Amino acid sequence: MRVPPRQGEPRPLISTRALVIVLVAIGAAALAAAAPDLAIPIGVGVAVITLLAQIVKD
């Protein structure tokens, strides 16, 4: 259950879930650059993680 922020209270710029997805994407990009032969499986793995994060959100 999410609690709305109080009046005048600053809201976070980015959610924790979005931050995790961005960090995973950056890590996957670095790994794909280091091992180009694994770029497609890495991309599929990141897509699965992103979809799971969306499912958990709902």
Summed up, what is this model?
By secondary structure, the chain is mainly alpha-helical.
Task: Explain this structure.
This protein is an all-alpha fold. The protein has one domain (16-57). Helix content is 66%, strand content 0%. α1 (16-34) packs antiparallel against α2. The longest helix is centred in the middle third of the chain and has 19 residues, at 16-34. The radius of gyration is 16 Å and the shape is elongated. It starts with 15 loop residues before the first helix and ends with a helix. 0% of the residues are buried. The mean pLDDT is 81.
Q: Structural class, from helix and strand content?
A: mainly alpha
From the alpha-carbon coordinates, what is the Rg to the nearest angstrom?
A: 16 Å
Tally of individual domains: 1
The biggest sheet amounts to: none
The gross shape turns out to be elongated
Report the mean per-residue pLDDT as an integer: 81
Number of strands: 0
Distance between the termini: 12 Å
Number of helices in the DSSP assignment? 2
The run of helices and strands is HH
Transmembrane segments: 12-32, 38-56
Keywords: Membrane, Transmembrane, Transmembrane helix
